[in-house]
Write a structure and sequence with these properties.
about 40% helix, nucleotide-binding, binds adenosine-5'-triphosphate, four-stranded mixed beta sheet, Rossmann fold, binds ligand LQESDW3C, about 210 residues, alpha/beta, transferase, 8 helices
C-alpha cells in the first residue's frame, strides 16, 4: 500500500442545530467541537446579557442594541432574528473564513435563522432539529441549567410548542434522550453528509488520476 493517503478535496458544509430552548443543542454542539477539529463554531452576536460563566467572544459577542442595529445596516449578518426578547445574529466574516480554510461550520440558531440560511445557501446547509423526550423533561433541563430567572424559564417554556412546530423544515431530527447517543447521532449525520458526492469536489480529478490520467 502507498504511504501517502489519498485526499479528495471537499466543499465545506454548514451544520445548523435548532431546538426549543433547553433541549440540549448547545451541549451536543460543544461535545461535537471537542471531538472534531474539522468543524468550527459560528459565534453569534446577541443583545442578551451574559449568563454566569459565559465568555464574550467565545459563547457570544455580547453587543448593545445600537451596535446590533448598526451591524444589521452594514449587512454584517448572514442571518438575524429576534428570539424571545433579544436580538441574535450570525456575523458573516468568520463563517466565510472557516469555510475558506476547508472546514465545516456549526451554527446554534433558531428556526427563523435556519429559514434565512436555507434561502441563501440551501446546497451547503445540513439542518438538525433537536427535540426533548417530553415537555416535563424540557422544563427540568431548563431549570436544572439554573442560569435563567423563573420568568425567563416561563417565557421559554411558553414558546417551546411554537418552536417545536418547525421540525418538518429540518433535514434530521434527533430526540435527545441519552446525551452520548445524541452526540453519536449528530457525528453520524456529519460523516454521511461529508461523503455526499456533490460535496467531494475533488472527485473528478481523483478518479481521472485513479484511471491513469486521460
Ligand atoms: N440528554 C440529556 N439528558 C439530560 N440533560 C441534558 C441532556 N442534554 C442536555 N442536558 C442538559 O440540559 C440543559 C440545557 O441544555 P443546553 O443548554 O444544551 O440547551 P439548549 O438547547 O442549547 O438551550 P438554549 O436554546 O436555551 O441555549 C443543560 O443543563 C444540559 O446539561
Ligand atoms: N436566528 C438566530 N438565533 C440564534 C442565534 N444565536 C442563538 N440563537 C438562538 O436563540 C435562542 C436562545 O439562545 P440563548 O443562548 O439565549 O439560550 C436559541 O434558540 C438559539 O439557538 C443567531 O445568531 N441567530
Amino acid at each position: 500500500m502507498s504511504d501517502t493517503l489519498p485526499t479528495v478535496s471537499r466543499r465545506g458544509l454548514m451544520l445548523v442545530m435548532s431546538s426549543p430552548s433547553g433541549a440540549g443543542k448547545t451541549t451536543i454542539s460543544r461535545a461535537l467541537l471537542e471531538r472534531d477539529s474539522a468543524i468550527g463554531m459560528s459565534v453569534s452576536a446577541t443583545t442578551r446579557p451574559p449568563r454566569p460563566g459565559e465568555v464574550d467572544g467565545k459563547d457570544y459577542h455580547f453587543v448593545t442594541v445600537e451596535k446590533f442595529h448598526d451591524m444589521v445596516e452594514k449587512r454584517e449578518f448572514l442571518e438575524h432574528a429576534r428570539v424571545f426578547d433579544n436580538f441574535y445574529g450570525t456575523p458573516r466574516g468568520p463563517v466565510d473564513e472557516i469555510l475558506r480554510s476547508g472546514r465545516d461550520v456549526l451554527f446554534d440558531i433558531d428556526w427563523q435563522g435556519t429559514q434565512q440560511m436555507a434561502q441563501n445557501a440551501r446546497a451547503d446547509l445540513v439542518s438538525v432539529f433537536v427535540l426533548p423526550p417530553s415537555v416535563e423533561e424540557l422544563e427540568r433541563r431548563l431549570r436544572g441549567r439554573a442560569q435563567d430567572s423563573d420568568e425567563v424559564v416561563r417565557k421559554r417554556m411558553a414558546k417551546a410548542g411554537d418552536e417545536m412546530s418547525h421540525w418538518p423544515e429540518y433535514d434530521y431530527i434527533v430526540v435527545n434522550v441519552d446525551l452520548d447517543k445524541s452526540i453519536a447521532a449528530v457525528q453520524a449525520i456529519l460523516a454521511a453528509e461529508r461523503l455526499k458526492r456533490e460535496r467531494q469536489v475533488g472527485l473528478p480529478d481523483f478518479v481521472t488520476q485513479l484511471r491513469g490520467g486521460e
